[in-house]
UniProtKB/TrEMBL annotation:
Binding positions for substrate per the UniProt entry: D25, L26, N27, R41, H64, L65, G66, R67, R118, R151
Pathway involvement of the protein, from the record: Carbohydrate degradation; glycolysis; pyruvate from D-glyceraldehyde 3-phosphate: step 2/5
Ranges of residues in domain HPt: 415-512
The keyword Chaperone is assigned to this record: no
InterPro entries, sorted: HPT_dom_sf, Phosphoglycerate_kinase, Phosphoglycerate_kinase_CS, Phosphoglycerate_kinase_N, Phosphoglycerate_kinase_sf, Sig_transdc_His_kin_Hpt_dom
UniProt binding sites for ATP: K202, E324, G350, G351, D352, T353
Residues carrying Phosphohistidine: H454
Name of the protein: Phosphoglycerate kinase
Recorded GO MF terms: kinase activity
Length: 512
């Protein structure tokens, strides 16, 4: 995966004193009072934040929480409980900043949390005006929100288009590697459980999944839509009637491969969506017009559990019922226990799925737990997620424009060994010089920056492409006479290219 990794930037000393904007996925489940019921996503975001702080950055972190209406902040949309939990994990205060789009006060060594980014107008549709403002807040944008990597929004895509440097955080990078590895050659039968409440998002993924998986188990609002497709009544239950055609297409695609999508034969219903609603188990054919289906029935759960026990690989996203209410948790509990008892390699993800895993204490029985729900389903579908598309694109100019010209280097040095030898020395000095130039410019010390650029101007033509050597020569020349206001933006454009060259040099000297 050709993306810039934040860990490399930290190791190269390019982060000290920089403004770092981290997009995390801190979208955790909460109860009615706003208490966090499961904090995996917060814990998983800690390493990136600590990495940025340890590298001496001024750190801003943000996330969405739920699906609020843009421009209409409500107290329940606030990231305050998340900041409080993060503060406990980090052992420091994490102040929450509201109305932050036009500027954020944060100093190196400090960490602030920027209030729910989905309240900003233009976030969802990735409006350019917002994206440019977001990018202007930072020197380095770090995408560490794997759970939201399938969304092309302002803080997950737009900011990456315009920020001076856009890179992958450690969680984002580790998740994609782990999921791809786990699913590269899945042991068959491969069974996917796709359930929960995000019907339209997930139903459209199912068509692609139907080509890959051997068994497709549906639950929650998705199962209700499949029941409609099978001609069953679902009363007032959560479903997406406009997607019945898609559900039918999935059933047909599975049938054509000799597999099927089991439609619930019994369900648990209520008359209201409430924890104390009376639960009634009934046949799937007996659902009344005023019924809400809130869980699969015990017969259906037992049948699905059998299928799961025979699986080679299980992918699980979404609880099959409203497991938060005791009367409607049985289906999810039975499925969770069947996954735990199965010898299959299991991979699970999704905000509420993680909460269900924690509730039934089966963390140790799951092969891999991802912070992504919809995102990891899209990886399974074979899609390139928008996060990776833009980060790869942002890594390209670095690789192309700042590239190492090894043929030239060998010619100039007389041999490959000669080139390697000079590159080892260069690697050492550039690793120190790049942050030193930035630090000098931060202090408006242009003469020091000029001295360092002058040295670089001398050796780059031995092994770098002309465009880069010329750009360095130009910035060095400007820095002889011009003030920091003129030099700093020129160096800001040059720095990522030099950082890219450094990565190439390191790769070259460590290759055999
Ligand atoms: N039959 C149902 N009717 C209404 N809500 C349901 C039903 N079945 C499950 N749910 C709800 O679905 C929610 C979880 O769905 P969701 O699609 O958000 O899953 P997830 O694991 O969080 O995945 P992701 O991270 O992709 O969102 C739970 O809060 C659960 O109560
Ligand atoms: O819970 C999730 O799957 C992620 O946080 C993404 O949330 P979204 O589906 O509201 O974009």
């Amino acid at each position: 995966m050709n993306v810039i990794r934040f860990s490399d930037l930290c190791a190269n000393g390019q982060v000290a004193g920089k403004r770092v904007f981290i997009r995390a996925d801190l979208n955790v489940p909460q109860d009615k009072e706003g208490h966090i019921t499961e904090d995996t996503r917060i814990r998983a975001s800690v390493p990136c934040i600590q990495m940025a702080l340890a590298a001496g950055a001024a750190v801003m972190v943000t996330s969405h929480l739920g699906r609020p209406t843009e421009g209409e902040f409500k107290p329940e949309d606030s990231l305050a409980p998340v900041a409080q939990r993060l503060g406990e994990l980090l052992g420091r205060e994490v102040p929450v900043i509201a109305n932050w789009v036009d500027g954020v006060e944060v100093q190196p060594g400090q960490l602030v949390m920027l209030e729910n980014c989905r309240v900003n107008v233009g976030e969802k549709k990735n409006k350019e005006e917002l994206a440019r403002k977001l990018a202007a807040l930072c020197d380095i944008f770090v995408h560490d929100a794997f759970g939201t990597a399938h969304r092309a929004e302002g803080t997950t895509y737009g900011i990456a288009q315009y920020a001076p440097i856009a890179c992958a955080g450690p969680l984002l990078a580790a998740e994609i590697d782990a999921i791809n590895k786990a699913l590269a050659n899945p042991k068959r039968p491969l069974v996917a459980i796709v359930a929960g409440s995000k019907v339209s998002t997930k139903l459209s993924i199912l068509q692609a999944l139907a080509k890959n998986v051997d068994n497709l188990i549906v639950g929650g609002g998705i199962a209700n839509t499949f029941m409609l497709a099978a001609g069953l009544k679902i009363g007032k239950s959560l479903a997406e009637p406009s997607l019945v055609g898609e559900a039918t297409a999935v059933i047909e695609a599975m049938k054509a491969r000799g597999a099927d999508v089991p439609i619930p034969t019994d369900v648990v219903t209520a008359k209201t969506f409430a924890a104390d609603a009376v639960a009634t188990v009934k046949a799937a054919t007996d659902v009344a017009d005023d019924d809400l289906i809130l869980d699969i029935g015990p017969q259906t759960a037992a049948k699905l559990a059998e299928q799961l026990k025979a699986a080679g690989t299980i992918v699980w996203n979404g609880p099959v019922g409203v497991f938060e209410f005791a009367a409607f948790e049985n289906g999810t509990k039975v499925i969770a226990q069947a996954i735990a008892e199965s010898s299959a390699f299991s991979i699970a993800g999704g905000g509420d799925t993680l909460a269900a895993i924690a509730k039934y204490g089966i963390e140790k029985d799951i092969g891999y737990i991802s912070t992504g729900g919809g995102a990891f389903l899209e990886v399974l579908e074979g899609k390139t997620l928008p996060a990776f598309e833009i980060l790869q694109r942002r890594a390209q100019p670095v690789a192309v424009a700042a590239s190492l010209d090894t043929a030239r280097g060998i010619g100039m040095m007389g041999s490959d060994a000669g080139l390697r030898s000079i590159l080892k020395t260069v690697l050492e000095s550039m690793t120190g010089d790049l942050p030193a130039i930035s630090a000098a410019l931060d202090k408006a010390d242009v003469p020091s920056a000029n001295r360092l650029l002058h040295a670089m101007k001398g050796y780059l033509p031995i092994f770098a492409v002309d465009a880069l050597s010329e750009e360095v020569a130009h910035v060095e020349w400007v820095s002889k006479t011009e003030p920091v206001e003129t030099v700093a933006p020129l160096y800001a454009a040059l720095a990522p290219k030099l950082a890219g060259l450094l990565v190439e040099i390191r790769t070259y000297v460590t290759s055999s």
